[in-house]
Amino acid sequence: xxxxxxxxxxxxxxxxxxxxxxxxxxxxxxxxxxxxxxxxxxxxxxxxxxxxxxxxxxxxxxxxxxxxxxxxxxxxxxxxxxxxxxxxxxxxxxxxxxxxxxxxxxxxxxxxxxxxxxxxxxxxxxxxxxxxxxxxxxxxxxxxxxxxxxxxxxxxx
Length: 157
Description:
It is a single chain. By secondary structure, the chain is mostly helical. The chain has one domain (3-156). It is 90% helix and 0% strand. It has 4 helices and no strands. Helix 2 crosses helix 3 and helix 3 (110-136) packs across helix 4 (138-156).
């Protein structure tokens, strides 16, 4: 103890010191009791949260996989529809050119040859692979998805 505390202790009467000691002991007991109550409440809440997570995790994973499957199918359908539309427009354009007896190569015919591979390689093939991966090996898909998220988060830092 420092000198100020020693001087204060010397000036206190025994009854005052006993009173202070009992008040201090009561305060510490209260802190201990409330600390135990807080600990118990925290422990109960944590157990409930873990139980809730354990109950809901399978459903959340199932819904996540279902969502990713539907997302991949939508992209796949959009890609196929785009290819059909581009093919149909190209067919009609060529037919129109033949009707005009114009057989010279048109720059407009080059566009489908750039669009079709772009759609196939950016939309159809990756999404088809995702659909297959989710239906055949959903755990592998989840692991790869989590790894991609982790890589993306670390690349930003």
